[in-house]
Write a structure and sequence with these properties.
Elements (H helix, E strand, L loop, with lengths): L6 H10 E4 L15 E4 L13 H8 L8 E6 L3 E7 L5 E5 L2 E5 L13 E11 L5 E13 L2 E2 L5 H12 L6 E3 L5 H6 L1 H7 L4 E7 L5 E4 L3 E2 L4 E2 L1
Parallel strand pairs: 2-12, 8-10
Antiparallel strand pairs: 1-6, 3-11, 4-5, 4-7, 5-6, 7-8, 8-9, 11-12, 13-14
Amino acid sequence: MDPWDDPLCARALLHLCLCESFELYGMPLRLARNFEVEYNCFHRGKHEGCTNERCAKKRLLGDTPCRTLATWLPKDRVGITLYVDSGLRTFVGIRGRVMLATEQVMQGNVLPAETLVLAHFVLDRVEGGRLEPRVLVFDVSLLGGRDMEGLPPSERYSALLSLFRNRGGMTTLQWVGEEASAVAQLDGLRKKLPHDVECVVSVGCDPWLLSRVMHVNVGKGSLR
């Protein structure tokens, strides 16, 4: 299926975007970038003998330690970016294109100019069986013009917490915390969240790469 034929993508365009923008001068190229979700290696340590491409890349970078955090990955989602420009207008990056955001998604009163955040668009099931659009922000790439990539995920998330604290509405901050806590809460999240959950993903030094967390329940002998 062409990604633009995806019904959920059509809903995202309907709720988030006014029109395609061609005013790209001065905007960061990463605004139109898509973040990836991968399967992580199922082992710990320095991975000296591992042929996984990501492990090889880490070794080339000196295997710099980076304490990861984790969150849940919505099952039905559209990955997007939100960018607030120097004029405090908000633009949406979606599947390689840049759109001017609707008034409902404008973030100029929340985010400083020249800030780029990563998010999921989902549809929440609410009272009466209605589907309500939601934007879950989980990471930041630029903050006030400062490059946040490569910084520890805890530092990036703390910056988001200070901006989104006590903020409601369509655009909200997604919980990100310790990996063990996220894994322990997975079954509970699946029951109480208003959208389906696929799995737990780790958030590392690269905000554009989420890794599915595999874990074993030894008592039940099950692999998730």
